[in-house]
Design a protein that fits this description.
mainly alpha; about 110 residues; about 0% strand
Length: about 110
């Protein structure tokens, strides 16, 4: 990831103050979906769609729960199309994000709180 995106991941910070895997690293990776896809081998369209969903659930603006549900369902179907060998149920975060986000989008500002 360092060579492609300029990110250090899965390494402890000097002095034992945590690790480099943080929200800033994730935002950088998802913003640069083409490079992120090339570095990881994950489908670029899936990365882009996950970025959109993450932005939607973290914003405090009113959202159409129906539109978000449809977008999340299409994204989940794309995931299953490419990665059926790794069931979504094994990733509770991905499962929660794609299958349950719309339930909370209509009135909740902070879905993950």
């Amino acid at each position: 990831m360092l060579a492609t995106l300029g990110l250090i991941v899965d390494e402890p910070r000097p002095g034992g103050t945590g690790h480099y895997n943080d929200g800033n690293a994730a935002r950088t990776a998802f913003k640069r979906s083409e490079e992120f896809a090339a570095a990881t081998g994950i489908d670029q369209q899936l990365i882009h769609r996950l970025h959109v969903v993450l932005q939607a659930v973290s914003c405090c603006l009113p959202l159409s729960s129906e539109a978000l549900a449809a977008y999340c369902t299409e994204t989940a179907e794309l995931y299953v199309h490419h990665y059926a060998w790794y069931p979504m149920s094994l990733s509770t975060t991905l499962h929660r994000l794609l299958l349950h986000s719309a339930m909370f989008s209509s009135g909740a500002c902070c879905l993950w709180a």
